[in-house]
Design a protein that fits this description.
By secondary structure, this protein is an alpha+beta fold. The chain has 2 helices and 4 strands, in the order E-E-E-E-H-H. The chain has helices spanning 56-59, 70-87; strands spanning 11-17, 23-28, 34-38, 41-48. Helix content is 25%, strand content 30%. The chain starts with 10 loop residues before the first strand and ends with a helix. The chain has a domain at 1-61.
């Protein structure tokens, strides 16, 4: 293996899915503030909002958003404004 190909901060990091507390240990250069103690070692901790453990594509879970999302709320709000403007 070639010397000096990886950055100096290339080390083992724990990636934790905050939705289900699953953890993956792999090497990375990600900058972290937190750390975690696992199996006698102290690792930098990176908290993820979504991973293959919680993503609907990988879990087969179907999630439906509410019928009134941000776009629908925006349209509804400005339909009222247009009606008021047309009446005057």
């Amino acid at each position: 293996m070639k010397k000096r190909t990886h950055p100096k901060n290339y080390r083992a990091v724990v990636f934790k899915d905050i939705n289900n507390d699953k953890m993956i240990i792999c090497k990375s250069t990600v900058i972290t503030k937190d750390s975690i103690y696992i199996d006698g070692n102290d690792y930098p901790l990176y908290k993820m909002e979504i991973s293959s453990y919680s993503h609907p594509f990988f879990t087969g879970e179907k999630r439906f958003l509410g019928k009134t999302g941000p776009a629908e709320k925006f349209k509804k709000k400005y339909e009222k404004y247009k009606k008021l403007q047309n009446n005057t």
